[in-house]
Design goal:
Helix content: 40-55%
Distance between the termini: 55 Å
CATH superfamily of the largest domain: Reverse transcriptase/Diguanylate cyclase domain
Shape: globular
CATH topology of the largest domain: Alpha-Beta Plaits
Strand content: 5-15%
Radius of gyration: 27 Å
């Protein structure tokens, strides 16, 4: 069964690369005829960019009928608990006409959907009723022409409340006249999510998936693989991304937006500081979910984007960051199980999977929050100058520049294939800077000990710790802006 599963995966991948291959030659020729009339700005949708004769302006934004229908469906799905898929007589469709909404397209295929927060009336014909959450079993009773089931839907979409709108206006949120006016009850625009970030106002874009899942299905069950066991394994992985991920996302309030989450991967956008914490939590919870199996883990890529940065481009950059994380090799030879953040790759254990945001020096996450606490005078306690962060980031940049120069020259590994120690001015400058700072903090023993411990960590592993200490400093600097 494992070999058959592998062949199936290969054939599916091949089929994906041959889209529209089943069409007749005449249909293929018609499909690729240009559908636009060229340069008609009044008919061009400002959402999808397609020219459509039904494009009209709504609240200052031109939208085509398909995009308007998707917006309506998105609003309905925001609070939906049930989805009814009804079989109907296929309707005629004029392929030469401009595209309509999602409902006519489904009707041409003989389908009609109804979504809502209450169970819809059951039609007399054949239909499928799906619960999108933990609906009671008594609401999912099958009937002669009705199939029932449960399909969890991660439809995390932050909504702008009256209080939130008032806060934005009080804080002089810069509304763009080209955008739709903000109103209570609408899904928060990405620009608002970026504005609500802690520190620097940026949007966080996260892509994440299970490492080596294809190999797990093909080889993981060995000779004990059966259709039932493979299906159960697939369901178990899907339940994590379609069920538990939604529960995690709810803990971050109205600061995250799910593009998709299902199967074995996810794609989230939100306030950048919330996205980082969300990614850590998803990875941390996955380990006990798979019974601490050492071969089951996740890799992730995160990038920061401006409030007006094209999401499609940010998604590609997050995908590249994820691929960068999957190329990471651990000291014991293992690969993947890493995260790319701010352009740097770290194994998850070094990045930090601790539950709390308490400061410490054992991970990038803990050190970032320790540094943030050390330079933050609002706590009322002892603190160090904020220049500590700037100096560490400057040393980190020097280290990265030297490391990249050596890597491109092929001198980053020694003869045994192990990472070559990298020597440079960031070493003695870092020790000197931290030593001087500790001397000036003799009247503040707690902070002095923290600076001294930071210095000891910097000196360990032939100063290789600079690659994660510097990342923590950059993280703290962004949080403190």
């Amino acid at each position: 069964i494992s070999q058959a599963w592998q062949r199936l995966a290969e054939q599916l991948q091949s089929a994906k690369l041959c889209r529209f291959a089943e069409l007749e030659p005449d249909d293929q020729a018609w499909l690729f005829i240009p559908q636009e009339d060229g340069g008609n700005e009044e008919r061009q949708c400002q959402v999808c960019g397609v020219e459509h004769p039904g494009t009209s302006e709504s609240e200052g934004v031109r939208k085509c009928p398909p995009c308007r229908s998707y917006e309506e469906l998105g609003r309905d799905l925001r609070r939906a608990r049930f989805l009814l898929l009804e079989e109907v007589e296929p309707s005629a469709i004029d392929l030469a006409a401009a595209a309509g909404g999602y409902a006519p397209a489904l009707a041409a295929l003989g389908l009609r959907i109804t979504v809502g927060d209450r169970r819809p009336p059951i039609p007399p014909g054949r239909a499928t009723l799906l619960a999108l959450d933990d609906a009671p079993v008594d609401e999912l009773q099958p009937q002669p022409h009705l199939a029932v089931g449960r399909r969890f839907l991660v439809n995390t979409a932050p909504v702008l409340s009256e209080a939130g709108l008032a806060d934005l206006r009080r804080d002089h949120y810069p509304e763009d006249p080209d955008d739709e006016p903000l109103r209570a009850g609408q899904v928060k625009p990405f620009s608002v999510l970026a504005w609500e970030s802690q520190g620097i106002q940026r949007l966080g874009v996260l892509r994440m998936d299970v490492d080596n899942l294809g190999r797990l299905f093909a080889e993981g069950l060995g000779e004990r693989a059966t259709l039932a066991r493979v299906a159960s394994l697939s369901l178990a992985v899907s339940l994590y991304f379609e069920g538990w991920v939604a529960q995690i996302a709810r803990e971050y309030g109205e600061r995250l937006y799910s593009i998709y989450s299902g199967g074995d991967d996810l794609f989230f956008v939100g306030a950048w500081d919330a996205v980082v914490e969300f990614a850590r939590r998803v990875r941390a919870d996955f380990t006990p979910y798979v019974a601490h199996h050492p071969g089951l883990h996740l890799s992730a890529g995160m990038v920061l984007a401006g409030r007006k940065y094209p999401l499609a481009q940010a998604a590609r950059e997050a995908g590249s960051a994820e691929e960068q994380a999957k190329r990471y090799q651990h000291a014991d030879g293992r690969r993947k199980d890493a995260v790319s953040f701010l352009g740097a790759v770290q194994p998850w254990q070094r990045f930090g999977l601790e539950a709390e945001c308490a400061g410490g020096v054992n991970s990038v996450h803990a050190l970032a929050h320790l540094l943030l606490d050390m330079v933050d005078p609002s706590g009322g306690g002892a603190h160090v100058p904020k220049s500590l962060l700037g100096n560490l980031v400057q040393l980190y940049d020097q280290y990265l520049e030297a490391y990249e120069e050596r890597r491109q020259a092929g001198r980053d590994l020694n003869r045994a294939g192990a990472p070559q120690a990298l020597w440079g001015p960031w070493m003695w400058r870092g020790v000197y800077m931290l030593s001087r700072m500790a001397d000036r903090l003799k009247g503040q023993p707690q902070v002095q000990r923290q600076v001294q411990e930071l210095q000891r960590n910097l000196e360990q592993e032939e100063f290789r710790n600079m690659d994660w200490i510097g990342l923590a400093a950059r993280w703290a600097e962004l949080l403190s802006r």
